[in-house]
What does this fold into?
Amino acid sequence: MALVESTNTKFLYSESEAEPKITQLFGDSKEFDPEPWLGRCDLVFVDGSHAYSYVVSDTQKALAMVKPGGLVLWHDYRGPRRIKGVWKALNELADRLDLKHVKDTSLIVWRRPA
It folds into this structure.
């Protein structure tokens, strides 16, 4: 349904040499089955719902999908008063994993150990 409702038909990677290597998924991420991608992704970019339960669910799936040496990148880390769910979930995760804030952005990154 998300793809049907989307007004975007082109993305930053469209028509680039990277495009054939990218699989962009649309839909309700809580219903998404990560099984085909477990441990296979070089990069998982998490940019979904800002609700805490979704960030936790999306994060669990992303961590399982990224291969050793790969990256998980989260969007919208903007502070406790702006996007509470993302802020809370990622700060909790930072107690367990070595997350890094990308300076001057709203991005958080983690590299799975090789």
Observations:
- Residues 52-65 form the longest helix (14 residues).
- The mean pLDDT is 91.
